[in-house]
């Protein structure tokens, strides 16, 4: 009985609204599409070949290729860059973040979709997660197959990304990545296959939700500080400090660590073996650089799992930071932003726990 009364209340409320207000409630959300390139804008000479070139198709062609998305949102597009994401760089990052912050501050923009390559989408998404100042949905999407391929995955990924960006329930969950029907958080996703359409996983933190033909279901909120709760800002920032990633391996010596510092790195992230570990020679070189003021983070080359402080390596004694659950490529993003503000080891370790 009570259930029936509850169902009637919204119907009655709607019936009592003036016609103009009902019309306004039905207006489509406004979504801006920012294109950066990638395979989703890639083209090949035939529809059944592996070789292709990223970043060939412009944003207007992308929008025109998925007319179904016009039922979900009013869309307009802007071309930020047109590159394979293996070439993603600071200049594009700063331009993209600045433009998103301008757009989300506009009252008539409800959400933003960014088309991107899959290779570094997790880095761009995590960067934006730390520097975008809005709860409005900001959604990245990509594809594994170029637009010309048989069974191209880009059009449906794009459709689903627009659906999520237009969905009020997506707000306040941090920057999202929508690929292959799954909604990932920027801090959790990682690319796990070089070629498979099902390449992205969110180990440890899990999926934010799923989306099937535009119907989204959300399972969780944001994990880790982000967007409006982030202490990072790009105000006045024109460049980011250099941080290099060094992968640990059997028989590693300290040459690459020292070489990175000689090349100008202010911070180093180790993609360590196992729990962020490395050879004694590697650790000696790292600790020596840490002593000289280079901020050194231990992450892992393993796809999933935490890197814990003082577990196998004495971080307190050697002056090192443990990455917690951030992989090496995202640790690099966080450390670059951290170095804009601080070199205090306690502060940087706190950032790795909180973000
Ligand atoms: N190399 C391409 C890129 O990241 C791969 C892709 O988009 O799937 O731009």
Structural summary, described in words:
It is a single chain. The chain has helices spanning 2-16, 19-25, 59-65, 90-104, 121-131, 154-165, 255-262, 280-291, 315-318, 328-338, 345-354, and strands spanning 30-37, 74-83, 111-115, 138-141, 176-179, 182-185, 190-191, 200-201, 209-212, 215-218, 243-247, 267-272, 295-300, 321-322. The protein is built from eleven helices and 14 strands. The strands form three sheets. An eight-stranded mixed beta sheet has the order 2-1-3-4-5-6-9-10, with helices on both faces. A four-stranded parallel beta sheet has the order 11-12-13-14, with helices on both faces. Strands 7-8 form a two-stranded antiparallel sheet. Helix content is 32%, strand content 19%. The chain is globular. By secondary structure, the protein is α/β, with parallel strands linked by helices. The site of aspartic acid has 11 residues, from loops.
């Amino acid at each position: 009985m009570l259930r029936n009364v509850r169902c009637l209340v919204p119907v009655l409320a709607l019936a009592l609204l003036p016609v103009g207000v009902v019309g306004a409630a039905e207006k489509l959300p406004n979504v801006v599409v920012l294109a950066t390139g990638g395979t989703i804008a890639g083209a090949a000479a035939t529809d059944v070949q592996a070789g292709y070139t990223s970043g060939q198709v412009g944003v207007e062609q992308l929008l025109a290729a998925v007319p179904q998305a016009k039922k979900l949102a009013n869309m307009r597009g802007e071309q930020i860059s047109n590159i394979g994401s293996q070439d993603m760089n600071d200049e594009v990052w700063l331009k993209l973040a600045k433009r998103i912050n301008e757009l989300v501050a506009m009252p008539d923009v409800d959400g933003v979709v960014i088309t991107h390559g899959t290779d570094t989408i997790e880095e761009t998404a995590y960067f934006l997660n730390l520097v975008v100042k809005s709860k409005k949905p900001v959604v990245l999407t990509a594809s594994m197959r170029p637009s010309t391929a048989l069974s191209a995955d880009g059009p449906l990924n794009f459709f689903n990304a627009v659906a999520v960006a237009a969905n009020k329930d997506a707000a306040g969950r941090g920057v999202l990545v929508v690929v292959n029907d799954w909604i990932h958080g920027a801090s959790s996703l990682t690319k796990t296959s070089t070629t498979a359409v099902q390449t992205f996983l969110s180990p440890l933190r899990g999926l934010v939700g799923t989306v099937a033909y535009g119907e989204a279901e959300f399972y969780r909120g944001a994990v880790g500080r982000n967007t409006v709760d982030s202490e990072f800002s790009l105000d006045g920032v024109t460049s980011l400090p250099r941080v290099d990633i060094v992968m640990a391996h059997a028989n590693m010596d300290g040459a690459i660590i020292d070489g990175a510092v000689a090349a100008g790195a202010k911070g180093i992230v180790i993609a360590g073996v196992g729990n962020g570990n490395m050879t004694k020679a590697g650790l000696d070189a790292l600790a020596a650089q840490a002593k000289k003021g280079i901020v050194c983070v231990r992450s892992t080359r393993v796809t999933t799992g935490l890197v814990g402080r003082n577990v196998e390596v004495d971080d307190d004694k050697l002056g090192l930071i443990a990455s917690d659950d951030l992989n090496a490529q995202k640790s690099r993003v966080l450390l670059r932003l951290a170095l804009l503000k601080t070199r205090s080891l306690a502060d940087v370790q706190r950032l790795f726990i909180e973000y």
